[in-house]
What we know:
Elements: H1 6-10, E1 17-21, H2 28-38, E2 44-46, H3 65-77, E3 80-84, H4 88-96, E4 101-104, H5 106-109, H6 112-122, E5 129-132, H7 139-151, E6 157-161, H8 178-187, E7 193-195, H9 197-201, H10 207-216, E8 221-225, H11 243-252, H12 261-304, H13 311-327, H14 332-355
Parallel strand pairs: 1-2, 1-8, 2-3, 3-4, 4-5, 5-6, 6-7, 7-8
Helix pairs in contact: 2-3, 4-6, 6-7, 12-14, 13-14
This protein binds phosphoenolpyruvate and manganese (II) ion (MN).
Amino acid sequence: MMIQNRENWLQLNGKPLIISGPCSAETEEQVLEAAHALKGKIDYFRAGIWKPRTMPNNFEGIGKDALQWMKKVKAETGLQTTVEVATPSHVHEAIKAGIDVLWVGARTTVNPFAVQDIADAVEGLDIPVFIKNPINPDIKLWMGAVERFRKAGITRIGLVHRGFSFLGEQKYRNRPNWQIAIEMMIEYPELPMIVDPSHICGNREMLQEVAQKAIDLNYDGLMLESHPTPNQAWSDAKQQVTPRRAIEIFESLVLRDSRQDDDLVQNDLDLLRSEIDELDADLLQLLGKRMEVSKRIGHFKKDKNITILQPKRWEEIVEKFIEQGAKHKLSKAFAVKLITAIHEESINNQEKIFRS
Ligand code: PEP
Ligand code: MN
């Protein structure tokens, strides 16, 4: 089996591959309006027909009727089309409707049974399949999905980096964890990797920055959600932009012909810095959580009339900290300094509770 590399099946010629269109197909008018506005500016028109929603009462997509609208898109604009498939019957319906490219969503990539069912359904078909990263930061599941489609004889496979879920509120809706996508590129240098800034950001403000970052990291393109009236979108309203704004983002991307050594150094540095930023955010979130528990202890001590500082407990904490710190290659001096600062803040908080 001849695996096609990214240049020969996508014919990128140094240009990024652009996929855009609404998160969900909602009405025929909405789909056609978006497609006409994007015509000539993108490579593939996307729309979710079957939507994997976290909660059962959310809009779950129009279903196969919307495939007729995608057919119309193709007939009226000449744009190639792509939809998400999550079951074998989605595959059959999409193929019947002449969809050009299939994509597997993040909530499907996590499930090897579902991926295998889809791979079985496309076996013997000559259709490109894009695979989004699994929703959890597990590169093996992503690789496993690639292998399943390869085994099914799919020679045109693409990867979509859409970020990874995590607990708590942070800058991103789905944390990029760039290093996982880069590892995937190293593992599969022949496969195109595109970024999906919409699902990474979860808002409109950061889309351009994330798209440019991906281009700087030598990604092959992007998938960006666009909707004629984003605020009224039936799904993912906050992150969608108008087709006009989407085109502005595509046209504003600074492309690099051939990357200079300086760029490569800068990219490595940027990547490491992003990792540090994400870890710092984790640290602060954990410290905040720890402080909340400490406040609960403060209330408990106040109710039971127990003193705030209990020397024996404090000694235990310090010892444990030094021991666990050593396991993570942290010096004793640093471990003591750190826990002392954290403990001081805890005591201050508990004192406030005692005084209240
Ligand atoms: C989507 O592209 O609208 C979608 C559902 O994406 P993901 O699978 O990345 O959540
Ligand atoms: Mn979406």
